[in-house]
């Protein structure tokens, strides 16, 4: 038969149509293989193994008495495990439909990221971005102009969603299927359908476990703040792994969806708290699971026990808050009254942090919901003044200058300088707060005589003053596990760095704690503790010990660490300094705040340094009992006065928790203290 041109055209068109159909089928087959590749492998492979990572339970953070500050709350989630999920599409679809119906009846939300309306006629959801729509179209393999109906048709074909289902049922199944594909659902990666299930749903799904193959209930430990008002700045927060840190965490074996510490103890003790992931290995042969075992057991994170007692800490915070309420603070540039300050109490024998209060403060349990408000709040309650706040030490620094002068042999306890209220140096007149006549070091510390320490600073020069300041830790990080400021010492080099002129008179200001010397309240507490230990400086620490998760076995106990030791040239260096500080404890204290009738001596030094904001701060340091120190402490009030009035309440609090009193006196107050504790616990 002779073929016409039109016949040849028809043949060519037929060939092109066959090729187009072949390509379409190949694309459709490729799509099915992408979606169900592991199912095909399960059916055709002789033997194939897959692994799943099992996330560890994060360790708890407890106080010194074992009270949980941050723990884990177990919730229930429904998961789909592909190792046990039917490979046959229709059977799998029916299970998915039954599952979402159960969740719907319980009014629960489940994973459904498909940007198509639930009910027909199908439309793209108005609350979905163009980016998410394009992502869906790319995943399911349709062109940019496809309608919602086109997308649903492709999803139903791909996942073999039966025509007997209603339009709504089709959409529910397709929604889950799409979410599973988007989450890279595989034998190695279980899919979470819903979380925070009530026990009624947990029981129902458990009873249907034989019928709903591959559907399983999993316990999910959630981080929960149990006590949010105890050193919240130091406890810190957990969060997701951010992109900038992803490589570092992945190299340590973390999964990208892991929860990690991002601040405070949560971050500092991450390696202890995190635990180690386990491994589940599933092996298939001819499409059947032949083994399912835990090949690497999961290891829970360790419990971190802190040095802080929750009850003591709350009461220490109350001392600070009550003082600020009574004595007030200062006004900022916007006219807001700022009541701010910090207190730190250390164990004088070890350097352990017993308490650390900062004001204003916040509650960790309300951190997430109130974060924006906290950022705007006057006084910045998110700022940890105890370890990050930098302040001039004022006259508390005179203890360091006294140490240098006595230990270098420039003065003795009997050496006197003359104070006539004014001090002349290089044609500049400097002032003292009083007319003290001939005065030696102990009384100079008692009355805080500037003239005495001006003369001593002149004799020492800035190099020796800064040398002794470094022995006390000025200008250095303390070594505490969490973040702190190093501060700095007023030296010619520092002045040049700050762009400030250094003049000959700056050595006098440095010697009395003014000028550009900046310290944290924690550093001041360390200064007090170093004096209490005759020149031995301990590293402060918050972590008492590390325990296994169930707290049955102590893994490691923190040992006190000496970071500096002043080599004493004369035996009476600290005897003279302590004598002056004991005298200061009886100087200008009203009866209500007196330190003279406690049953033991207290060594203190106060200061009122000028701040950068044109007001004076109020500072104190000290330790007690003076003859056998148990606690060392420091405090600061921004723009206020009389911070030393907090010392007595602090010591009375320490008496109840840290045995400051002689045994017979402690017993006489025991009943009264127990009654007070009971009342306070009821209020809490």
Account of the 3D structure:
This protein has 684 residues and is an alpha+beta fold. It is 38% helix and 19% strand. It is built from 21 helices and 25 strands. Strands 2, 3, 4, 5, 10, 20 and 21 form a 7-stranded mixed β-sheet that branches. It has a 5-stranded antiparallel β-sheet with strand order 14-13-25-24-23, sandwiched between helices. The chain has a 3-stranded antiparallel β-sheet with strand order 1-8-9. Strand 24 and strand 25 form a beta hairpin. Helix 2 packs across helix 5. It starts with a helix and ends with a helix. The N terminus is likely disordered.
End-to-end C-alpha gap = 103 Å
* Overall pLDDT score: 88
Shape: elongated
Total count of helical runs of at least 4 residues: 21
Kindly name the structural category.
alpha+beta
């Amino acid at each position: 038969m002779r073929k016409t041109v039109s016949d040849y055209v028809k043949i060519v068109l037929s060939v092109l149509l066959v090729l187009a159909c072949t390509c379409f089928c190949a694309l459709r087959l490729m799509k099915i293989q992408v979606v169900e590749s592991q199912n095909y492998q399960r059916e055709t492979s002789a033997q194939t193994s897959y692994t799943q990572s099992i996330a560890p339970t994060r360790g708890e953070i407890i106080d010194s008495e074992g009270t949980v500050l941050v723990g884990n709350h177990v919730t229930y989630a429904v998961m789909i495990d592909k190792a046990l999920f039917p490979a046959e599409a229709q059977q799998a679809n029916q299970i998915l439909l039954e599952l979402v119906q159960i969740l719907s009846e319980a009014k629960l939300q489940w994973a459904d990221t498909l940007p198509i309306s639930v009910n027909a006629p199908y439309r793209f959801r108005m609350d979905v971005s163009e980016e998410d729509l394009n992502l869906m179209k790319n995943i399911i393999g349709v062109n940019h102009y496809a309608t919602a109906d086109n997308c649903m048709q492709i999803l139903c074909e791909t996942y073999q969603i039966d025509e007997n289902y209603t339009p709504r049922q089709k959409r529910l199944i397709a929604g889950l299927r799409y979410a599973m594909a988007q989450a890279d659902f595989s034998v190695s990666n279980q899919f979470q359908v819903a979380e925070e299930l009530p026990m009624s749903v947990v029981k129902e799904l458990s009873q249907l476990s034989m019928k709903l193959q591959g559907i399983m209930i999993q316990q999910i430990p959630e981080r929960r703040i149990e006590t949010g008002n105890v050193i919240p700045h130091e406890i810190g927060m957990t969060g997701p792994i951010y992109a900038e840190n992803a490589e570092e965490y992945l190299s340590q074996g973390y999964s990208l969806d892991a929860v990690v510490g991002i601040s405070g103890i949560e971050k500092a003790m991450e390696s202890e708290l995190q635990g180690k992931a386990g491994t589940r290995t599933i092996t298939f042969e001819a499409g059947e699971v032949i083994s399912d075992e835990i090949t690497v057991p999961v290891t829970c994170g360790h419990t971190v026990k802190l040095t802080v007692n929750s009850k003591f800490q709350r009461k220490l915070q109350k001392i600070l808050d009550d003082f600020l309420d009574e004595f007030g603070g200062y006004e900022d540039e916007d006219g807001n009254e700022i009541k701010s300050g910090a207190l730190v109490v250390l164990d004088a024998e070890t350097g352990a942090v017993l308490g650390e209060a900062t004001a204003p403060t916040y509650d960790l349990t309300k951190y997430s919901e109130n974060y924006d408000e906290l950022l705007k709040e006057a006084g910045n309650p998110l700022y940890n003044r105890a370890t990050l706040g930098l302040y001039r030490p004022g006259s508390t620094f005179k203890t360091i200058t006294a140490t240098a002068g006595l230990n270098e042999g420039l003065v003795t306890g009997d050496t006197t300088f003359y104070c006539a209220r004014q001090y002349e140096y290089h044609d500049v007149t400097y002032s003292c707060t009083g007319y003290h006549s001939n005065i030696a070091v102990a009384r100079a510390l008692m009355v805080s005589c500037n003239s005495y320490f001006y003369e001593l600073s002149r004799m020492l020069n800035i190099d020796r003053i800064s040398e002794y300041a470094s022995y006390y830790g000025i200008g250095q990080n303390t070594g505490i596990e969490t973040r702190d400021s190093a501060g700095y010492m007023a030296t010619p080099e520092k002045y040049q760095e700050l762009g400030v002129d250094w003049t000959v008179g700056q050595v006098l200001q440095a010697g009395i704690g003014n000028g550009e010397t900046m310290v944290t309240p924690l550093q001041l507490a360390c200064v007090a503790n170093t004096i209490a230990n005759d020149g031995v400086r301990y590293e402060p620490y918050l972590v008492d010990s590390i325990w296994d998760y169930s707290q049955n076995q102590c893994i490691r106990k923190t040992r006190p660490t000496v970071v500096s030791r002043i080599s004493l040239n004369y035996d009476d260096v600290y005897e003279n300094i302590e004598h002056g500080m004991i005298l200061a404890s009886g100087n200008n204290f009203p009866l209500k705040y007196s330190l003279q009738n406690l049953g033991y001596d207290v060594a203190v030094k106060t200061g009122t340094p000028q701040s950068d904001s044109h007001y004076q701060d109020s500072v104190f340091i000290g330790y007690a009992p003076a003859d056998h120190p148990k606690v060392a402490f420091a405090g600061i009030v921004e723009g206020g006065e009389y911070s030393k009035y907090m010392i007595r309440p602090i010591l009375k609090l320490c008496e109840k928790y840290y045995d400051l009193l002689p045994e017979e006196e402690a017993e006489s107050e025991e009943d009264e203290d127990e009654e007070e504790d009971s009342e306070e616990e009821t209020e809490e």
